[in-house]
Design brief:
CATH architecture of the largest domain: 3-Layer(aba) Sandwich
Number of helices: 6
CATH topology of the largest domain: Protein Transport Mog1p, Chain A
């Protein structure tokens, strides 16, 4: 007979899990109660991001409606359509600090809330220019009626890229304690109308867009030349 897997509840009640939970609880308390200063970056507005990236050219730029902005509470956002080998929906939400409890919203919450149904979800590793090792990225396919979209997204800070929503919170605590900063960006790339042409070719285009946009966006937000403020 195959080995029985422990139930999720049993795993959560195990000594290692309880120990990790206790450590995280202490770190969270230290993070939010600490009177130490926090480094808060002040990068250029995302609206100044490059209109042309690789073979891609901005076709349209959109503003978030007040209701979405009030829900998101990001310090800066960018919503654009880029055209090139394919049509790409590009979205960035940047948070200068999460110390007040304002954090990025996962597309796995936002898209289903807008009526989309998940078809598949997994984390993939993509090599991008300028990085010594591949970055983890969520590959998420959703559908709404006849509409089908391929979504790639990740959480990015000055020090790392994370695909897992829960792991990003863990690193938030560690980086806040180590670097005294909690700035983070949610980056989302969507290949729209995923069912209207060859899926493999469209996915290849989306991955190429990520490779083309990664370093310019990183330089835009986390360049060493960005100004900084100090929060008490």
């Amino acid at each position: 007979m195959p080995d029985e897997k422990p139930s999720p509840l049993a795993v959560l009640r195990s000594k290692p899990a309880l120990a990790v939970a206790a450590v995280l609880a202490v770190e969270i308390a230290v993070f939010y109660a600490s009177p130490n200063r926090e480094y808060i970056p002040s990068p250029p507005p995302l609206a100044q991001f490059d209109l042309n990236v690789g073979k891609w050219t901005m076709a349209a730029q959109h503003e978030l409606d007040p209701e979405s902005q009030n829900l998101l509470k990001a310090d800066d956002t960018l919503t654009r359509d880029y055209v090139g080998p394919n049509h790409i929906d590009f979205f960035v939400a940047f948070f200068k600090s999460q110390r007040a409890g304002v954090t990025p919203h996962s597309p796995k919450m936002c898209l289903p809330a807008n009526g989309f149904t998940e078809e598949s979800s997994r984390i993939v590793s993509l090599s991008v220019p300028g990085e010594p090792k591949p970055i983890p990225v969520n590959r998420y396919i959703v559908s709404l009626g006849d509409r089908r979209e391929l979504v790639y997204y990740w959480f990015q800070t000055a020090h790392r890229v994370t695909a897992d929503e829960y792991l990003s919170k863990f690193y938030l605590i560690l980086d806040s304690l180590h670097y005294r900063r909690s700035d983070e960006a949610l980056v989302r790339v969507i290949a729209t109308d995923f069912n209207n042409r060859d899926d493999e070719a469209q996915e290849k285009d989306a991955i190429q867009f990520i490779r083309d946009v990664y370093q310019p966006l990183k330089n835009q937000i986390w360049s060493s030349n960005t100004n900084a403020a100090v929060w008490r």
